[in-house]
Amino acid sequence: MTQPVRIESGAHVAVLDALRGAGVLVTPDPSTDITLGGGDGLHAADWDSITRRLIADGWTFYADEWDLPVEIGYLPNGSVAHGLYPAHEDNEPISHEDEFRYKLALLDLMKGLA
Hints:
The protein is α+β, with helices and mostly antiparallel strands. The chain has helices spanning 42-56, 96-113, and strands spanning 5-8, 13-17, 22-27, 59-61, 71-74, 80-86. Strands 1, 2, 3, 4, 5 and 6 form a 6-stranded antiparallel β-sheet that branches. Strand 2 (13-17) and strand 3 form a beta hairpin. The longest helix has 18 residues, at 96-113.
C-alpha cells in the first residue's frame, strides 16, 4: 500500500491519498497571518498558490451547495481542514457507499495530522 503524498507550501499542508481518492488541505491558524498595509495577508496568497497547484494536479474540493470548500475538521492548534478528492470529468454524483468510503479515508488522513 502506498503512503499518502504530503505537499507543504508556506503556510498550508495537503495530504493526498490518490489510491483511496481522498485528500485533506489544512489551513493555518488565522491568528498567525501577516498583513502588510491592509488587504489580504500571506495566508490568502499561499492559499491561492496551493489551490492552483492542487487543481493542476487533478484535485478538487469537497464543496457545499454554493461550491465553497467544506470545513471537515479542526486541529488542536486552530488549523482548519478541508476535504479534497480527485476531479472527475463526468461530474456524476457519487453513491452513498462511495461517499462513506471517502469520509472514512478523510478520517484516516485527519488522524495522521493531529
